[in-house]
Amino acid sequence: MADRKTEIHQALKHYFGFEKFKGQQLDIISALLDGEDVFVLMPTGGGKSMCYQLPALMSEGTAVVISPLIALMKNQVDAISNYCEEEGVAHFLNSSLSRAATEQVKADVRSGKTKLLYVAPESLSKEENVEFLRSVKVSFFAVDEAHCISEWGHDFRPEYRRIRPIIAEIGNFPVIALTATATPKVQHDIQKNLGIHDAKVFRSSFNRANLYYEVRPKTQDIDRDIIRYIKNSPSCSGIIYCLSRKKVEELAQTLQINGIKALPYHAGMDAATRSANQDDFLNERVDVIVATIAFGMGIDKPDVRFVIHYDIPKSLEGYYQETGRAGRDGGEGRCITFYSRKDLNKLDKLMQSKPVNEQEIGHLLLLETAAYAESSVCRRKILLNYFGEVYEEDDCGNCDNCLRTRTKVDATSELREAIRTVDETGEQYRLEYIINILIGRKTDELKSNGHETLDTFGALESFGEKMVGALLRQAIIGGFLSRDFENYGILKLTPRGKEFINHPTSFKIVEDIDYSEADIEPQVRSGAACATDTVLYSILKNLRKQVARAAELPPYVIFQDPTLEAMATTYPLTNEELLAIPGVGTGKASRYGRQFLEVIAKYVEENDVIRPEDIRVRSIPKKNNKKVQIIQAIDRKIDLDELAQNLGLEFDELIDELDAIVEAGTKIDIGYFLDEIFDDEQQEELMDFFRTSEEDDVESAIQEFGDDYSEQDIRLARVRFISEVGN
Description:
Elements: H1 2-16, H2 25-33, E1 38-41, H3 48-58, E2 62-66, H4 70-83, E3 90-93, H5 99-111, E4 116-119, H6 121-124, H7 127-134, E5 138-143, H8 163-170, E6 175-179, H9 184-194, E7 200-203, E8 211-217, H10 222-231, E9 237-241, H11 245-257, E10 262-265, H12 271-282, E11 288-291, E12 304-309, H13 316-323, E13 333-339, H14 341-350, H15 356-374, H16 379-386, H17 400-403, E14 408-410, H18 412-424, H19 431-439, H20 444-448, H21 465-477, E15 481-484, E16 490-493, H22 495-502, E17 508-510, H23 534-551, H24 555-558, H25 561-570, H26 575-579, H27 586-606, H28 626-635, H29 640-646, H30 651-663, H31 671-677, H32 680-692, H33 698-705, H34 711-726
Parallel strand pairs: 1-6, 1-7, 2-4, 2-5, 3-4, 5-6, 8-13, 9-11, 9-12, 10-11, 12-13
Antiparallel strand pairs: 14-17, 15-16
């Protein structure tokens, strides 16, 4: 064994010039060279590639590396070729190669030159490639980004699930599976699917202490926030992730016209442009890449200083994987995520066409993501708990929650009631079901199970649904409850939870964050300061209350919170500057603008404020602007169902556009459409609700009216109210 380890160290020095290994690399490489199957769970930046590259260079024959992306293969082949003097030591085999190039690759493999052959799972499944690999000496198979195998992984890919039978066709070889992100459930799924149940497992800590995690409310000013953030971080490399290709293109253009060196990257671009944009980022010709999740797997750029999520990802696996691309060199990495419940609701709706079991899994993953975003618990503690790792500290000192003032509430008796409920229902139900029992909500499922008769039914009604949810999630983190992900997140008692029923000890929780509140305490970090003037913002909110009281209107009708935030950031002094702020149309500017401009001007003068001219965001002109088309169509009284169909929009998406139009201060008249679906009494009832409601909250209206009106009905009524009364 000592000789083997000496040999491995010598090879490390010879090929890569390093004197020592990181973490568990040496033991992993030793196991693979001994012919064992290996499972490696190692965070991004931990050196996973070395775990199969060095054994491949030391072994007779060619190691076949199954990799998900052409760009990743190219990056890996270029990297290994730079370390080795011999030509042809690493190749990739995929659809991007010409016939002549493919033949050259195969010739190099046959000759024994090639030690690493990268293939996509789709390429591996081709019969001609299976036959070729059967005819050459293979040393072992490496499955990179192995989380793609699992239906619970953040990037589920069916071709990955056929890898085991294809390898069996080629021969009997050791397999090493590597991933940077896997819950215990995903790890089990990977090992089962690859047939490596008895693999030697190497799990490194998921804790990336150098990464700062922050979640911010997603407002209308998100582009301004991102531009300000980047300009406060000059010459830093960063990645911005968006869920849609369209948003990638739009945001990249917006950054460019605001003086930021940025390029887009997504799977819909032609391969040459995509590759060129990636190279420009890696070679620091641009500072920022705006991308979908297609970008980043295995990209070895160590000095990415920030990762921004424009949209929150579909799962915590995806979130962890993508944030892990920051600070791979051990230096500071800032991970900023913009969160809106509306985005998660859209993602949930997009899953409705999938099979039921995939919908169930996807919904559970979204709930975990929402819980992470809304929790006030240390972000690091939540992430590590999700991946099955215990983080003992209550305060990591490097996330927004740990830097924010948080009030703890004693919940000892409430936890006992919650644990009793899980116990008395036989440990067979998910978190949402237990919440319904504790707050006394009589759902059909609950009544059919007879659980409204439990002693704990309604026991925590006064505690409130949001706090009960926080209680249960923090009980999981505290080790009193666990989730059985094999059974879609059913809650189970742990030994500690059983002990707590008879011998309770003090248990305190922190309240979840309410993202409907715009004045969440901002955190100031180097290079990431939030420039909103909280003093002016408070003054403007008080002014809004006075104006609303005089007009006998709810405050949000005057100006919405994001509009006041923008005023407290850019300090408009003229009518023209005021009109440039989202949510201020000509009607609102003429009706209320003078009072707000006077207050802002007085504040600027008294406090010697230097106005931030550099963060006045320039917008890209929109081609075929949908909003213009919608306004013109409504002027012509086009049926809204027909309008949505003509524009290729779902009806909910059309209402989103109507919301944006009226919230920007533009007046539109959809009365002709509402007259067709409501009588006068119904319309007046809905208008009265919004007229008297202090909160701009559709959910409150849904609860108020029950089944009398659909969510779409209520949203349309709100559009009419804002337009007629506010604009």
